[in-house]
């Protein structure tokens, strides 16, 4: 007596066979191979926690508020940001765009942030394009490196890194100006 597949197994195998893409199909967006460009960008991020006109707002915090911190930032705190980007360190220098996203205090001593930010360009050759930066920001270190993990517009399929330095920090208010130098490979 011959073994037969149950009807549902036959249907499953037939569906799998029909769902397999053919080798003749082409991608929706053709991607050029080995046609990468390297962009080197420099700008300043103005992170203002203090009022009035704060650009970084604390949206979550340790409910007990009991954790001590050497940086003034407390483990578990989350800040949502819409920080201005400028060409120079002065807040009145040429605006280039915005840094939008959030950062969270990810170390119990307050020395590390987890940074998830979209750098959105609103002026210059990159207008309408953006770069995604995500990773650990050890804020007590003089120079920090964060990965560039993607982008839009000119920076589609971006990858690279951003070197960040604290240009100025006001210990009374928590406001900071960060210098960012990014090296970005993109198509």
TrEMBL record:
<comment type="function">
    <text>Dirigent proteins impart stereoselectivity on the phenoxy radical-coupling reaction, yielding optically active lignans from two molecules of coniferyl alcohol in the biosynthesis of lignans, flavonolignans, and alkaloids and thus plays a central role in plant secondary metabolism.</text>
</comment>
<keyword id="KW-0052">Apoplast</keyword>
<feature type="signal peptide">
    <location>
        <begin position="1"/>
        <end position="25"/>
    </location>
</feature>
<comment type="similarity">
    <text>Belongs to the plant dirigent protein family.</text>
</comment>
<dbReference type="InterPro" id="IPR044859">
    <property type="entry name" value="Allene_oxi_cyc_Dirigent"/>
</dbReference>
<keyword id="KW-0964">Secreted</keyword>
<dbReference type="InterPro" id="IPR004265">
    <property type="entry name" value="Dirigent"/>
</dbReference>
<keyword id="KW-0732">Signal</keyword>
<dbReference type="Pfam" id="PF03018">
    <property type="entry name" value="Dirigent"/>
</dbReference>
<dbReference type="GO" id="GO:0048046">
    <property type="term" value="C:apoplast"/>
</dbReference>
<dbReference type="GO" id="GO:0009699">
    <property type="term" value="P:phenylpropanoid biosynthetic process"/>
</dbReference>
<comment type="subunit">
    <text>Homodimer.</text>
</comment>
<protein>
    <recommendedName>
        <fullName>Dirigent protein</fullName>
    </recommendedName>
</protein>
């Amino acid at each position: 007596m011959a073994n037969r597949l149950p009807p549902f197994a036959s249907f499953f195998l037939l569906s799998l066979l029909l769902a397999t893409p053919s080798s003749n199909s082409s991608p929706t967006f053709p991607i050029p191979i080995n046609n990468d460009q390297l962009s080197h960008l420099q700008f300043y991020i103005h992170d203002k926690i203090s009022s009035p006109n704060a650009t970084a707002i604390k949206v979550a915090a340790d409910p007990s508020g009991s954790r001590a911190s050497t940086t003034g930032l407390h483990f578990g705190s989350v800040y949502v940001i819409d920080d201005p980007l400028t060409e120079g360190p002065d807040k009145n220098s040429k605006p280039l765009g915005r840094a939008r996203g959030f950062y969270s205090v990810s170390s119990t001593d307050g020395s590390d942030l987890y940074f998830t930010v979209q750098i959105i360009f609103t002026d210059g050759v990159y207008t309408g394009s953006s770069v995604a930066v995500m990773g650990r920001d050890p804020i007590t270190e003089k120079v920090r490196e964060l990965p560039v993990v993607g982008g839009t517009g000119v920076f589609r399929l971006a990858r690279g890194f951003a070197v960040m330095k604290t240009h100025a920090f006001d210990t009374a208010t928590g406001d900071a100006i960060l210098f960012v130098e990014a090296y970005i490979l993109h198509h």
